[in-house]
Write a structure and sequence with these properties.
Number of helices: 3
Shape: flat
Strand content: under 5%
Number of strands: 0
Radius of gyration: 13 Å
Length: 56
């Protein structure tokens, strides 16, 4: 089996496509949060808190 390595952009594109197949949308804000978690400028907890704050 060949060793393939996807970039974070490709991974997020695949996730977005899966979301669309389920009738959901990955917003630019959520994508930015994913990248922030990936590069270490935000924690998962911080981003979940931001999301939860929108839906009291």
């Amino acid at each position: 089996m060949p060793n393939t390595q996807q970039t974070i952009t490709e991974i997020l594109d695949n996730i977005a496509m899966s979301c669309r197949m389920e009738g959901l949308e990955m917003t630019d804000e959520i994508r930015a949060m994913c990248l922030a978690i990936y590069n270490g400028s935000a924690t998962l907890q911080d981003c979940l808190h931001k999301i939860n704050a929108k839906y009291p």
